[in-house]
Write the structure tokens for this entry.
Amino acid sequence: MHSAVAHHFESLEKQAEAQRLGMWLFLATEILLFTALFAAYGVYRFLYTAAFSEASRGLETWLGGVNTLILVTSSFTVAMGLDAATRGRTRRTAGLLGLSILLGAVFLALKAFEYHHHFAHGELPGRYYTGPIAGSGGALFFTLYFLITGLHAIHVLIGMTVLAVVAVRCWRGAYDAEYHVPVELAGLYWHLVDLIWIFVFPLVYLI
Amino acid sequence: MTAHAGDAAVPAPPHSHRGRYLAVWIALLLLTGLTWGLSRSHVPGFAGVAIALGIAIVKGTLVALFFMHLWDRPGPSRLVLLSSLVFVALLIGLTLLDVSTRSPLALPPDADTAPEALRRTILEEEAAGRRSPPERLPRATP
């Protein structure tokens, strides 16, 4: 039996099934965490439709678009990394995960550039908002903007860390064609981060 | 019949998903371009929101089915995701139903949906400096 099987599991496949289920349960809680923010966004968008449209139009849509392309591509490289792992080519997996981490870093760099732009224009959350939109709509938009994109950026950072740990272990030969569940689970987390951004992009930048 | 796990002498060659990943990636890039392009034409009101969210749902489904392997793996993972989506629908749907059916007087007075006269008065007072914006504290004097 493979050395990665814990003593309370009958086989590697049963252990892998349990690990996948555990990961999906965790991802479900992550989805609900972001849903609470999306619900708040929905409420205030309904109440301050005009201000939200105006604030959203003031964002650099191309930055959000480029960041979407970057995250989608990083998801693709993670998926290709898992494919290499299933064939036992774990050095290749390490390289592809490294590329994904790099794409994550570019995403965060663009986000930081964008935040800097907001700070310079007084587009800050809540009572610190000094931008041009009258009433509380502009302040509320930027409160939710920073909460949603900030929480997402924290998830990108965590995802990059997880991918880095798995990539190093891949490079050192910890996984093989038979056992590579950690590559799969790290990939699931990264895809979820991508999935959430796929919804953040239209909500914050497009509508 | 298929061999039991453990007594298979020759492991089945792993089925490669590279072609599928590539197709999904290209589809995601194209859909991102599409939703971006459509947003530039400023489809008004609810239609614009519905189009943007519809494209996002298609993209999200592609990621969940193929990058996250729900297509190949029926069973508990699908059940977990689908039940989380039920709660997403409840949380967003019921919250919006609540807010959209309240009496206008129960809404923040400067909201778009608040009575027009009240809203105008508040914005005018704010512009004239007689009222500080509701979400902001008075500026600290240095």
Q: What stands out?
A: Chain A touches chain B through 66 residues (CB under 8 Å). The helical segments of chain A are 12-47, 49-57, 61-86, 90-120, 137-171, 181-206. The two ends of chain A are 54 Å apart (CA to CA).
